[in-house]
């Protein structure tokens, strides 16, 4: 019998470096390929579920956990020239009445607020102080702002009214003390024209309060650009760290925001929801409602987020527990939606702002 012809060996497969690799049985090769496909699919599933998990944590109110492009997070704090970090959202307590302001402060601290915006003239500092002290939150973990009322601008009156605020708040220092209005007027007397026009003596006394450790930062409120320039033309030891002014959808303050950025002055927005008289109208603005619907946020959260995204502190007031909680949950609006609200806020007709000049019988306009 003729022996079977020997089949020639196939040449071994050659790799890129020209070295020969031993050949493998066909079934083992198939198994490897199948294993690789399964591994890749498993990896992709793990990656996708990871992304969904992260988006759920980072974007809790995103409709359906949808991931928006270019989302950046909002600042939780701003750093002042002193190096102190001021929380970007505060609970405002103007018009927060007796037996309700303390509860609002308690709710706020539980909800995560660490910034209370008050004033001597709000006449509720004692109740705010009691709530702060019984909360168990450490003093150094809460930012407390108070304001110097118009009747006490004369240097000799400042320390005693500050001490009164400190005693009522139950603390030995304020994080921030502001000149409440650019009007120096002792009770029952005509306003002091010289001190109103140039509050340098008032400011020097405030600087002394910083040196004494009773106040950590000083600033102003309701100052327009002219008044800011007048004050800072003096040889100040400490420049104003903050200017607290009305800023809302109705009073967007574009010029002042630009000036403040150029001059490293932090703004704080009061009446950010339009105050009691206009909050309903603000929350019904079509753009606000549309954005809220799109992002699964409430209209108030959209407005408060928009404020922080514009680069300043925002001070919404509420004594309603659910609203206090609601208002602290802010997050960045996607750029296109932010622009949509910014355009709407800066292109409507001008609205009147809070201006007590007439009510206080002044012969000048505070904002001139
Ligand atoms: N420096 C100054 O001269 C000056 C002047 C004005 C104000 N401020 C400061 O700024 C803070 C805020 O200003 P503001 O009180 O005039 O106005 P705001 O915060 O714009 O509006 C407060 C009003 O909005 C309501 N509200 C709050 N959250 C809401 C929500 N999520 N949904 C629906 N309604 C809501 C409040 O009702 P409820 O309380 O009933 O919930 C209240 O009627 C003041 O408390 C004060 O600290 C400073």
TrEMBL record:
Residues 1-28 are annotated as: Disordered. The keyword Membrane applies. It holds the Pfam family Aldo_ket_red. Residues 90-333 form the NADP-dependent oxidoreductase domain. The chain crosses the membrane at residues 33-51. Keywords: Membrane, Oxidoreductase, Transmembrane, Transmembrane helix. Gene3D superfamilies: NADP-dependent oxidoreductase domain. CDD domains: AKR_AKR1-5-like. One of its GO terms (molecular function) is oxidoreductase activity, acting on the CH-OH group of donors, NAD or NADP as acceptor. This is NADP-dependent oxidoreductase domain-containing protein. It comes from Mycena belliarum.
